[in-house]
Amino acid sequence: MSIYLIDIENVNLELFLKSKNFEKTDKFYLVGNSNLKFSMFVLEFFEDIEYKIYHFNDAEKNYADKILFTILGSILNRPEYVNDKIYMVSNDNIFEELKYTENLFKKKVINLKFLNSTSKALVKTNNDENLEIKNIYEKK
Question: Please, what are the domains in the chain?
């Protein structure tokens, strides 16, 4: 199982969900402003998937980031998630340095920088490796 903490303030959620074949056991934590809209694809995607939405009305600077760090701390302290892969999906630079989680919690958190393009879904990991997950509009 994988856990995805997603900053939907700066990540195109629909493109991200289309970029990879996720497992039914994956968990999603979505954080963003209450005014964000979801497509029918996104709503259908989450019909059979475990997810939690954290939303807020205040537009205070870095509010979503603070919520994401709080959720991350909670997940890292839960023994039932000890063998799960954890991904922080955000384009904010504040999440580039998550290596401390390995020392403090013995858990690696992978930072995915999702490029909100219309043709490719790319991610950038903590190791500065660029990984192409999938060209979502590629003809099969």
Answer: 2-134 (3.40.50)
